[in-house]
């Protein structure tokens, strides 16, 4: 970084009120605008070697300010303001390893279902085809498809030891932990 000559220093100081007014018009908050102007001046001084003498300094500074504003706007759009931490203290996430284990169990059980039943079930449940479409794909009657899907579901229920709806999702202990954190 080169040293800032006195003329450039005066030009930057002279541009500051205009930069501040523009920053306030962009973000609507005086304190945020002051930070934005400060960041603009710091970036301009750090990159003074890129400024071409004889070109419009104000335009260059306004471009820096505008780019900073839009970069921070994109970044802040993904952030949630939580100055006292109250929002974060109520967040709870179920552990992910259970889902992976459930998926592995499902894959293992699915491979134990007879191929014709597995194919019918996957075409209905995973591919989202209608029973008529599956019958056409498999070259059999709609009733046969319904029977195969029903048998596949029953076999998976048996293999996965599913007794009711409470067997889906997080286990009892995990559900209790999530409720107590909320």
Category from helices, strands and their pairing:
mainly alpha
> How big a fraction of the residues is strand?
under 5%
Main sheet, how many strands, which sense, barrel? Answer: none
Quote the distance from N terminus to C terminus: 51 Å
What Rg do the Cα atoms give? 32 Å
Helical run tally: 9
Return the CATH topology of the largest domain: Arc Repressor Mutant, subunit A
CATH classification, class level of the largest domain? Mainly Alpha
Stretches where pLDDT is under 50 for at least 5 consecutive residues are: none
Order of helices and strands: HHHHHHHHH
Q: Can you count the beta strands? A: 0
Count of the domains: 2
The appropriate CATH architecture of the largest domain is Orthogonal Bundle
Helix content: 55-70%
Annotated CATH homologous superfamily of the largest domain: Winged helix-like DNA-binding domain superfamily/Winged helix DNA-binding domain
Principal-axes shape call: elongated
Mean of all residue-level pLDDT scores: 84
């Amino acid at each position: 970084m080169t040293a800032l000559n006195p003329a450039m220093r005066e030009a930057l100081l002279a541009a500051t009120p205009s930069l501040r007014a523009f920053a306030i018009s962009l973000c609507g908050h005086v304190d945020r605008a002051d930070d934005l102007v400060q960041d603009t001046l710091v970036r301009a001084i750090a990159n003074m070697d890129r400024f071409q003498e004889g070109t419009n300094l104000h335009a260059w500074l306004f471009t820096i300010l505008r780019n900073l504003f839009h970069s921070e706007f994109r970044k802040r759009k993904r952030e949630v303001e939580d100055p006292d931490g109250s929002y974060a203290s109520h967040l709870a996430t179920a552990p992910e390893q259970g889902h992976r284990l459930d998926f592995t169990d499902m894959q293992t059980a699915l491979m134990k279902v007879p191929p014709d039943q597995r194919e019918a079930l996957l075409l209905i449940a995973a591919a989202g085809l209608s029973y008529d479409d599956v019958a056409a794909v498999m070259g059999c009657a709609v009733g046969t498809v319904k029977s195969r899907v029903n048998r596949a579901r029953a076999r998976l229920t048996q293999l996965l030891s599913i007794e009711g709806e409470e067997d889906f999702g997080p286990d009892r202990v995990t559900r209790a932990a999530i409720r107590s954190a909320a």
